[in-house]
Amino acid sequence: MYQRPDGGLSHVEEGKTSLKIVTSPDQVKDLFRPWWRRYMLPFIHAVSLIVLLVGGTIWTLQQQHPKYTSPVALLKLPGAVISAGSPTEEAFRIGQVLRKYTDNGENADRIAEAVVTESNKRQIDPSLLVGVMLVEDESLNPRARSFMGARGLMQVMPFHRGQWGCESKDLYSIEGNICHGVSVLADAIKNAPSLRVALQRYNGCVTGRNTPGCHSYSSKVLSARDRAAQQIMAVSNSSPQE
Questions:
Q1: CA distance 118 to 158
Q2: What is the pLDDT of residue 207?
Q3: Would you state the pLDDT for residue 75?
Q4: What is the reported pLDDT for 205?
């Protein structure tokens, strides 16, 4: 048998061939190997590489976003987590304002994202939510606790925990606290004759016996809301990634 220039085998015709003789058994085996076996090894290498990349992604998410480590959860990842993209313009603006009150930039950004998420869900002005938080605790400490037992950024009382369908029941969690607080405030706004009354009810200031001077609460929140709104509008709309 002789090997043709195109890689095939042929019998030699005397005086009419310049074909090269094949002497290696392995070379002959390769010539008759099924076509699909030629592509198997590269395919296996490609699959192995994909598995390694996916495994690395899951490990990274497990470190930074533990709840997104199952295959099903990965399909439901927010776009911001999948692409590590920038926050929405509104969240970015709010986050920049909140950084004036806390040295923890990561917390400021998380608070801003939660505020935008819950304000959209409950149809409440995000500036109002920022105003409530700044009046409750201007340092924006997620672990804040009042002498009455109210907890977190929006000073939510423990008896509200788990009543509003929030993903987290932890009132010291940024997202959990804001979800509960906004839900309580939205309910108060729905059932009150005015925003001022709703804010007073949110504060638990009905008679003023528990917290003397609490009747000024609504005025403080509305003033903080207006100030926050002006600061938010003054922030450049260019995100850090641009």
A1: 19
A2: 61
A3: 46
A4: 85
Query: Which two structure tokens, joined as six digits, stand for 48?
Result: 């192995």
Tell me the Ramachandran region of residue 13: left when phi exceeds 0, alpha when psi lies from -120 to 50, beta otherwise.
beta
Which residues, listed in sequence order, are joined to residue 207 by a DSSP beta bridge? none
Both 76 and 128 in one domain: the answer is: no
Give the torsion sign (CA, 169, 171, 176, 180).
positive
The distance of Cα 86 from the centroid of its chain, to the nearest Å, equals 10
Looking from the CA of 144 toward its CB, the CA atoms found within 13 Å total: 19
- How are strands ordered across the β-sheet holding 20-21? 9-10, 2-3, 20-21
Task: Name the helix (H) or strand (E) containing 139.
Answer: none
Q: Which of 25, 48, 80 is the last residue of a domain?
A: 80
Same domain as 119, residue 76: no
Task: Give a yes or no: residue 211 inside a domain.
Answer: yes
Of 63, 80, 97, the domain-final residue: 80
Do 133 and 42 belong together in one domain?
no
At 46, give phi and psi (nearest 5°). Answer: -65, -45
Residue pointed to by tokens 């304000």: 119
How much is the pLDDT for 67?
46
Q: pTM here?
A: 0.62
Give average pLDDT by consecutive 10-residue segment, the chain, 242 residues: 55 55 60 60 73 64 49 44 58 95 95 96 96 96 93 95 91 96 96 95 76 86 96 75 45
Range of the structural domain that residue 99 is part of:
86-234
Q: Confirm whether 239 is domain-assigned.
A: no
